[in-house]
Amino acid sequence: MAGAAALAWHVSLNDGPWQLAIAGYLLGAVVSVFLLTLYRSINSLRRSKSFRRNPRLDRTGQLIAVCGLVVGLYCGYLVATELAKW
Q: Which regions of the chain are under pLDDT 70?
């Protein structure tokens, strides 16, 4: 998510090529959601009588996924506006 935000910021300032926004979209919208899904599936496999959930870690994962989606959508907006100029 942080890498996608850095790429979006770099492209927004017109310092970087718009192709970096594609990488930001993939990092933000795809990779962060995939990692949250992977965490949830591993977490559900580990549940046993002695396993203690960590709700703070669950909420942090959700927050990172939501922020990743927002940054990914912004990168998608940057790509769409650049392609509309053609």
A: 47-51
